[in-house]
Amino acid sequence: MAINKNHEFEELNGVKCAIVEKNVSAERVAFLKQLLEYNKYAVVVVASPPPKVVASPTKPVATTEATTESESQPQPEPIPQPQPPETFTVGVTDVTFNPTNAIFGRLLKTPQGHVVTLSYWQQKEAESHDEVPYYEAG
User: Fold this and answer.
1) Helix or strand or coil: residue 17?
2) Could you tell me if 24 and 66 are in contact, meaning their C-beta atoms sit under 8 angstroms apart?
3) Where do the DSSP E strands lie in 50-113?
């Protein structure tokens, strides 16, 4: 059981893992896997289960003459549901890993040798620029 929402872990492919992110795209998986493996974490990726679909309620059938007339009319075909996008769950085998602590604790490095910033982690910036923490700024 997780200590809090920011430190989740579960079993992925039979291995106890700390969850990095859930329901991520294949592009995001490639980014995270490359970054985490560079930082010497063993990464486990599994397909996320599809979202649960609630069946639409059916109308009760009445036993009157009106239903016999409506039964002779063709019923409209049900609208096919669009396929949900394929998403993945990313985890690392080090159950002490916490993404929030790793980013704000400046524990992760990019392949270029820079510290991973929040903007880089969220893929808002293509390169991570070492920022001086607020508590060290003069």
Assistant:
1) strand
2) no
3) 88-92
> What does pLDDT average to over the chain?
80
What's the rounded Cα separation, in Å, for the pair 1 and 49? 20
51 C-beta neighbours (distance < 10 Å), count: 9
Q: CA-to-CA distance for 22 and 40, rounded, in angstroms?
A: 21
Question: Is this structure's pTM higher than 0.85?
Answer: no
User: Buried (b) or exposed (e) across 94-117, using 16+ Cβ within 10 A?
Assistant: eeebbbeebbeeeebebeeeebbb
Q: In sequence order, what are the beta bridge partners of 44?
A: 91
Neighbour-count burial of 20, counting CB atoms closer than 10 A to its CB (0-12 exposed, 13-18 middle, 19+ buried):
buried
